[in-house]
Amino acid sequence: MTPTITAFESSPDRGVGLARDTRVRWAFEEVGQPYEVRLVSFKAMKEPAHLALHPFGQIPTYEEGGLVLFESGAIVLHVAETHAGLLPVDANARSRAIAWMFAALNTVEPPILELQNAGLLEGDMPWAGERLPLVMDRIRTRLAQLSVRLGEADWLDGAFTAGDLMMVHALLRLRPSGLLDEFPNLAAYVGRGEARPAYQRAFAAQLAVFTDKVPMEQPS
Ligand code: GTB
């Protein structure tokens, strides 16, 4: 049965791939699993039909047969566990890859989200100018540690895994800040992730949702 996920009907990022359906699309593309997408508006996300799928009224969700999932990490883990290609066969290596998924979601992504909040939601607060450098430094600390661990390797632990997928997608959000460029091996790591054909397909699919809605400029 083809799984269905939900995504923004109108993504605030204008299709640059930052919304979390992109990581789920990427996982599907990596394992060759076709999927369907149901687009939802901000209003519909808070209505009972969507809240029955996602208690917090967000995207993405996943439905297949009798299974409903929310949380991008849980969805990517489910895809990785039910298909070959995103988790190693060796039990220890598999557990390490899952640890990297958790690290991306619980240790690396939270300060990156704080940066977004500091800029977008709290930028007008009187204390915003003092908070921003603190948040930037918290991110720098994590990036420095991650950079040391990655070293000159292509991926975090051997071959590309779901751990890399989650980490690359979490790091992508940093690009406009310039912080990623302070760590050339991490910038190259993210570039390697984006260059994967599966990522390219996922990116194109989420971008099409945006561009299909925006009238193209007519040549004069
Ligand atoms: N922990 C959850 C997960 O990993 O699935 C978080 C899900 C989440 O934050 N979903 C967001 C959402 O539905 C979309 S991805 N927000 C609507 C709401 O809460 O009402 C987060 C996101 C939103 C916008 C941008 N952007 O514009 O750049 C990037 C990412």
Describe the overall structure:
With 220 residues, the protein is of the alpha+beta class. The chain folds into 2 domains: 4-85 and 199-213, Glutaredoxin (3-Layer(aba) Sandwich), CATH 3.40.30.10; 91-196, Glutathione S-transferase Yfyf (Class Pi), Chain A, domain 2. 55% of the residues lie in helices and 8% in strands. The protein has 9 helices and 4 strands. The chain has helices at residues 21-31, 42-45, 48-51, 72-82, 91-121, 128-150, 162-172, 184-195, 197-211; strands spanning 4-8, 36-40, 61-64, 67-70. It has a 4-stranded mixed β-sheet with strand order 2-1-3-4. Strand 3 (61-64) and strand 4 form a beta hairpin. Bound molecules: S-(P-nitrobenzyl)glutathione.
* End-to-end distance: 47 Å
User: What is the CATH third-level topology name of the largest domain?
Assistant: Glutathione S-transferase Yfyf (Class Pi), Chain A, domain 2
Please state the overall shape, judged from the principal axes of the Cα atoms.
globular
Helix content: 55-70%
- Beta-strand content estimate: 5-15%
Q: How would you sum up the major sheet?
A: 4 strands, mixed
Structure keywords:
single chain; 220 residues; alpha+beta; Glutaredoxin; Glutathione S-transferase Yfyf (Class Pi), Chain A, domain 2; four-stranded mixed beta sheet; 9 helices; 8% strand; globular; disordered C terminus; binds S-(P-nitrobenzyl)glutathione
